[in-house]
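Hi W., the magnesium ion complex you wanted:
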Amino acid sequence: RECESERLAALNTIEARTNDDVRIQVLGNIEFPQEVTQCAKRGADGIGLYRTEFLYLGSDHEPTEEEHYDAYCRVIEEMGDHPVVIRTLDLGADKIPGDIEEFRTKADNPALGLRSIRLSLRHLGQFKTQLRAILRAAVHGDIRIMFPLVTTLLELRRARMILADVIEDLEDEKIDFRKDLPVGMMVEVPAAALQAHNFAREVDFFSIGTNDLIQYALAVDRAEPSVASLYRAGDPSILQLIQMVVNAGHAEGIPVTVCGQMSSDPKFVPLLLGLGLRELSMVPANIPVVKQRIRDMDLAAAQRRADAIMGQVDTPQTINMIPPK
Ligand code: PEP
Ligand code: MG
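Structure:
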């Protein structure tokens, strides 16, 4: 066991390449700024998902622009030239700030309620505060913006309009900021996956959020133990949605990442790469095992296996078709 952990630790400084020499970007998901150290130590190629809800959760006030700015600067300082994808607030549903009255919800069905980008578009003051801080911090590193839970094109366009307003304000105020940073979206609602070809023309990248995508596509509460056995990443419908998003992204020449829990699981790595993904973002602790899995696999074989899996009509246990290493 000790040997195994030593072997994995040796991967920290080595990049992820398949046996047949295809470079894969291995990125980290973080919630708290201090987690960036874990990612840097394990040789992450960047931060693929920076969840910014921590600024609200556990706080008794709405974060100020400076609090946002400091949190973002801390992460880019440590990641150097590597990309850092900052996701705008994804509050609501399972992420409820206890101490800020207006965000408390009494909805019966919060996962389908006023959450995430929907909430940001109703609280423009806070949304703009966060966007200002992101644009200002982007002067110091390779920051990218990502909107969560985008469901319709109209919603994306509204979010982009607010971003354009913020850019104008900063220009008027002659504040130092970066204007041309990439803007992407999470694909985590089946409606967005089905419309990915249209979304792909209006964003710079996609990141597939399988945690919510599975919940909404299979109608299974991601946090409900009594239906946990029905929550299956390998379900053919999920694989098909992922495939659609990857194809749509590649057709428009934009990068596609998976940042849900699925990409942290070495068992799914060959399948995801076989479906065309070249970037995976995961919990920092799993970076070494995923790197190891990538180095052990042959991409051409993974593609053939993914094709075979996608060609099956009735595959209730799809993932079992992937032989263990
Ligand atoms: C997801 O939904 O897959 C995701 C990465 O976001 P979160 O888990 O924060 O909802
Ligand atoms: Mg999500």
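Strands lie at 25-30, 47-51, 84-87, 143-147, 183-187, 205-208, 256-258, 279-282.

W.
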